[in-house]
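Tip: read the tokens left to right.
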């Protein structure tokens, strides 16, 4: 299961390379004629050079909408109307388009790796990626196997007789890379970030958040979930009547776990992510689950202790371990074993899982084509290995060099802003600058690549490959426990269209795949690049000073470096931003569903700070190039183009069910609101578009939020 603790603060909800994307065009539709044959060289007339694609196409603008009233509509409404969401997606926009390009490039890579696997160097990255992909695309073998690959795991569950048996099963399952009920992995110690420790944290729920188990509005989803559980069990051979009873028991079981779980807003607080205990003290919280035995089973040595991150959850887990009937535990473990394995089993399991999680919860009409699902498995199994091949194919050194220049310029603008703050004391400013000085930007891809030599895969066993990779990656992660934190490690693959800030190592990270239009254009003017990747850089750097990141110092420690008065002033300003976003009701015909301003606060602070910082960096760049500063492009000034590109990167639409789900779980505000939220608080936006007082996009006086 995915480790949670302190998540890297990403620019957007992951576009997930395993995730949705529209179908790649058939190769026959896009193939080009050979260019170097003698006939082509001697007889083909010289073709006129194709006109350069504009870095911003003003034909997309809806000039019938006043930019000062609805900036998102002005920039994006025509594009959204002309680009409906593909049937196998829940959303479609600028991020998704760029992710689609990345997926297609990766598809070429894995397809070539598959075809060349038999002749590739034994044990090479290319061979292993090719074999994993080949095994996943062998639908005939997967259909023939049915549920058989999972039967050994189900037999172990069937054999459980006592609470101690269950505890022993959990110990062994984690060691195999198959965690149940809770999550476990490595992470920097909040009190000594130079060292990695173990983190155990809440998990184990099949619905998105704890509220789904009790909120009256989620009654239909609860019923659908119980039906899904029953069908999942039935597909694996459980009699229908028994499957229904087990499903009801599982729902009650998870409802108890949910009651002891924290909500997404609560999990944003560092004090709810870290609770350091000795092994002896952990055993007092869970007297029926022995942590020393657990760690021994994982092959991990725990020195002074580890983080039992949500003690209330683990106390409830222990209570249920002792008091819940073994038969209910078996049903719960059986279902989650099948559910986790479903994407790698026969079609009936895959379709069943999609029907609930794709159609019912997210409103997605069609499943992704198989190659994208299998590509997702390659990414989850050997993502950085695939990234190594991706970078070699598409990432140019000059892109990294230009991105580094932008990072330096934007970081300098952030420093200047901190120094000029009128609400922060000199003492706290000095500590903020000290943190700024320790930022580590990472561009494109890791300086050192992972070693995959211990991973054994084959071209004929898809489920076995997934199991092997899961165990390999789990042990790669927990092997870090007790070792120094490596700031050069990456938490995203190079092929991911995203960026992130990590508070516990104070790094800002920009994968290769996002260093492309509309974010970054080597041929674009300064305004386009600063309104795109410049604002992304500013966003990630600002995360170091948002409501969560500001609770960590430059060394990555959860340490207060603020004066009491400065923190109070900061909280007053961020509270205004919470209120602003609480007022947004983004779903048409659902006026009662609002953005959660507290859940999205960190991202909203980063958007506002990042866009201000990028704007300042643009002004410094234009001072060095006054001719460009005074020149309009396609009738728009540099300041206008800066804001136009910011809005463009957030263009897109989302299906209603997915939008409702995002409001409950996503720490990012809806993209359409990110296009307008930060600009509405900036005087520079009002000036750029000559907005009149009272315009809907303009916040004046106390309604305007200024933080960094």
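Filled-in amino acids:
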């Amino acid at each position: 299961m995915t480790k949670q603790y302190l998540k890297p603060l990403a620019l957007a909800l992951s576009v997930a390379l395993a995730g949705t994307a529209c179908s790649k065009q058939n190769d026959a539709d896009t193939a080009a004629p050979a260019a170097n044959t003698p006939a082509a060289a001697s007889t083909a007339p010289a073709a006129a050079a194709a006109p350069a694609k504009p870095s911003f196409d003003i034909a997309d603008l809806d000039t019938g909408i006043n930019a000062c009233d609805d900036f998102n509509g002005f920039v994006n409404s025509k594009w959204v109307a002309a680009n409906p969401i593909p049937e196998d997606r829940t959303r479609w926009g600028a991020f998704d388009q760029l992710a689609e390009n990345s997926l297609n490039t990766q598809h070429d890579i894995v397809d070539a790796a598959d075809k060349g696997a038999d002749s590739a160097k034994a044990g090479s990255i290319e061979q292993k990626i090719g074999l994993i992909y080949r095994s996943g695309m062998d639908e005939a073998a997967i259909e023939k196997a049915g549920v058989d690959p999972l039967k050994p795991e189900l037999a172990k569950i069937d054999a459980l007789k006592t609470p101690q048996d269950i505890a022993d099963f959990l110990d062994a399952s984690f060691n195999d890379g198959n965690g149940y009920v809770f999550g476990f992995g490595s992470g920097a110690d909040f009190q000594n970030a130079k060292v990695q420790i173990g983190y155990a944290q809440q998990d184990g729920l099949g619905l998105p958040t704890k509220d789904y188990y009790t909120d009256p509005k989620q009654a239909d989803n609860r019923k659908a979930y119980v039906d899904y559980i029953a069908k999942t069990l039935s597909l694996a051979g459980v009699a229908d009547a028994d499957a229904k009873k087990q499903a009801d028991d599982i729902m009650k079981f998870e409802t108890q776990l949910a009651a002891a779980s924290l909500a997404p807003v609560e999990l944003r607080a560092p004090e709810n992510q870290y609770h350091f205990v000795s092994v002896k003290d952990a055993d007092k919280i869970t007297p029926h689950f022995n942590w020393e035995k657990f760690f021994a089973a994982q092959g991990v040595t725990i020195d002074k202790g580890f983080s039992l991150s949500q003690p209330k959850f683990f106390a409830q887990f222990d209570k249920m371990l002792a008091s819940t009937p073994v038969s209910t535990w078996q049903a719960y473990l059986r279902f989650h074993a099948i559910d986790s394995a479903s994407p790698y089993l026969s079609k009936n399991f895959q379709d069943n899982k999609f029907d609930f999680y794709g159609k019912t919860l997210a409103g997605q009409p069609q499943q992704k084509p198989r190659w994208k699902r299998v590509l997702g498995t390659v990414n989850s199994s050997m993502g950085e290995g695939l990234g190594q091949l991706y970078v070699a194919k598409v990432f140019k050194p000059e892109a990294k060099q230009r991105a580094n220049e932008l990072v330096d310029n934007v970081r300098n603008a952030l420093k200047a802003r901190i120094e000029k703050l009128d609400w922060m004391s000199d003492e706290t400013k000095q500590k903020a600058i000290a943190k700024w000085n320790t930022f580590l930007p990472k561009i494109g891809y890791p300086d050192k690549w992972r070693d995959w030599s211990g991973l054994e895969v084959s071209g004929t066993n898809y489920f076995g490959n997934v199991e092997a990779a899961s165990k390999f990656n789990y042990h790669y992660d927990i092997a870090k426990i007790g070792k120094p934190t490596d700031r050069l490690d990456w938490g995203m693959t190079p092929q991911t269209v995203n960026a992130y800030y990590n508070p516990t190592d104070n790094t800002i990270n920009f994968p290769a795949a996002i260093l492309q239009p509309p974010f970054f254009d080597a041929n674009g003017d300064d305004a386009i690049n600063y309104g795109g990747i410049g604002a992304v850089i500013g966003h990630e750097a600002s995360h170091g000073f948002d409501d969560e990141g500001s609770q960590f110092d430059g060394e990555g420690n959860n340490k207060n470096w603020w004066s009491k008065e400065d923190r109070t002033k900061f909280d007053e300003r961020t509270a205004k931003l919470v209120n602003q976003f609480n007022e947004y009701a983004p779903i048409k015909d659902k006026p009662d569903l609002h953005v959660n301003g507290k859940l999205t606060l960190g991202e909203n602070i980063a958007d506002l700070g990042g866009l201000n910082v990028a704007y300042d960096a643009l002004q410094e760049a234009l001072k060095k190039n006054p001719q460009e500063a005074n020149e309009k492009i396609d009738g728009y000034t540099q300041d206008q183009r800066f804001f136009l590109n910011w809005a463009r990167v957030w263009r897109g639409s989302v299906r209603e069910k997915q939008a409702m789900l995002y409001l409950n779980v996503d720490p990012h505000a809806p993209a359409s609101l990110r296009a307008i939220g930060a600009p509405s608080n900036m005087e520079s936006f009002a000036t750029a578009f000559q907005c009149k007082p009272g315009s809907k996009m303009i916040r004046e006086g106390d309604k305007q939020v200024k933080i960094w």
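The radius of gyration is 26 Å. The mean pLDDT is 93.
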